[in-house]
């Protein structure tokens, strides 16, 4: 009987195409979502270094002075965080894997460092039309000197002194990546040619909350909803917040707080607001009875999607996650269900579920 089964299998296989590809003669067709390797368009790169800062595996190095962009292929986990963070969209996730080799490869790409535009006889730039004259401009009538721009600048080109109300930019160091513009809570930063009326147009688009800010407004926490995760304190540029998870204490230094709203944006439970204490607290008290009972949540990982990049563990304020090569562990006793890990996961491999 065994011989007949073998003969049947042989005859079927004789009239079928082979199950394998004649690689490398015949190349495989990769799926669109395949995380193969990182490619760079050197002509678009401004060597801002954001990709290097955001890389959880420290696989990317940026040498701005030398005009070099390097990637350690063996360290890269293809999480795609650098692709999403790149302000110039010069990085791309190629579905094709790098060629196999016997040595660790460091790809070095030469990037032309753009020099400042030469000035003509009239004092203007010869390349004004190309945008080389654009600079980072701050509307200091709107600026609250929170320092978020300086904190997020990859080039250390910004200096902010809250006490003296000083905002400075080093035009030679600034690469106009726009990271500070995106993080500015008051929308008082733009990249444009000095002297143009762009600042006024941009200021008009600022949120109404920025315009209506008054001295009576304060940062208020609804501690019935607060889980004391500490993300607000972690993201406060003024060190105005203090959170003690064990003692369930949340404090704000009203003198240090500049009401920038960075903590409000980061709060996973939306229990922070900026407003007049009397009004907000009375509304919170009226609605306290209407709130449903809190449900304990925890993150669950999809092994088919996870790239073990460690970004979830780095972001977790409770140190409840531990990530190693092909190993993801959650300490449910420490986990507070804030969802911070969900927001930073580049592979969408995490979701919240009830404990």
Describe the structure.
- This is 4Fe-4S binding protein.
- It comes from Candidatus Allocopromorpha excrementipullorum.
- One of its GO terms (molecular function) is metal ion binding.
- Keywords: 4Fe-4S, Iron, Iron-sulfur, Metal-binding.
- With 355 residues, this protein is α+β, with helices and mostly antiparallel strands.
- It has twelve helices and 17 strands.
- The protein has helices at residues 2-14, 50-54, 81-85, 148-152, 179-183, 198-204, 208-211, 231-235, 262-266, 277-287, 311-315, 340-344; strands spanning 37-40, 60-63, 68-72, 91-94, 106-110, 135-138, 158-161, 166-169, 189-192, 218-221, 241-244, 249-252, 272-275, 297-301, 321-324, 327-330, 350-354.
- The strands form eight sheets. The protein has a three-stranded antiparallel beta sheet with strand order 2-3-5.
- The longest helix has 13 residues, at 2-14.
- The N and C termini lie far apart (54 Å).
């Amino acid at each position: 009987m065994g011989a007949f089964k073998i003969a049947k299998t042989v005859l079927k296989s004789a009239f079928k195409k082979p199950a394998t590809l004649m690689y490398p003669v015949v190349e495989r067709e990769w799926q669109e979502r395949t995380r193969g390797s990182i490619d760079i368009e050197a002509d678009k790169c401004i060597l801002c270094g954001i990709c290097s800062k955001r890389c959880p595996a420290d696989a990317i190095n940026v040498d701005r002075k030398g005009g070099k962009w390097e990637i350690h292929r063996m360290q890269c986990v293809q999480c795609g965080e650098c692709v999403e963070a790149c302000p110039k969209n010069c990085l791309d996730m190629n579905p094709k894997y790098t060629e196999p080799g016997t040595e660790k490869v460091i790809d070095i790409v030469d990037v032309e460092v753009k020099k400042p535009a030469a000035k003509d006889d009239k004092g203007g730039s010869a390349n004004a039309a190309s945008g080389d004259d654009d600079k980072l401009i701050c509307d200091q009538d709107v600026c609250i000197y929170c320092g978020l721009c300086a904190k997020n600048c990859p080039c250390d080109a910004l200096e902010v002194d809250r006490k003296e109300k000083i905002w400075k930019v080093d035009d030679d160091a600034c690469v106009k990546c726009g990271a500070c513009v995106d993080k500015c809570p008051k929308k008082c930063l733009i990249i444009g040619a000095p002297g143009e009326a762009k600042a006024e147009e941009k200021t008009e688009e600022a949120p109404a909350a920025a315009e209506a800010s008054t001295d009576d407004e304060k940062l208020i926490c609804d501690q019935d909803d607060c889980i004391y995760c500490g993300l607000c304190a972690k993201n406060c540029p003024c060190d105005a917040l203090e959170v003690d998870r064990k003692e369930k204490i949340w404090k704000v230094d009203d003198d240090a707080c500049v009401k920038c709203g960075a903590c409000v944006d980061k709060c996973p439970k939306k229990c922070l607001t900026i407003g007049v204490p009397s009004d907000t607290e009375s509304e919170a008290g009226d609605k306290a009875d209407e709130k449903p009972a809190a449900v304990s949540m925890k993150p669950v990982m999809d092994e088919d999607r996870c790239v073990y990049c460690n970004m979830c563990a780095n972001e977790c304020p409770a140190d409840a996650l531990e990530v190693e090569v092909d190993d993801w562990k959650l300490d449910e006793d420490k986990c507070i269900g804030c969802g911070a890990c969900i927001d930073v996961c580049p592979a969408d491999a995490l979701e919240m579920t009830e404990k």
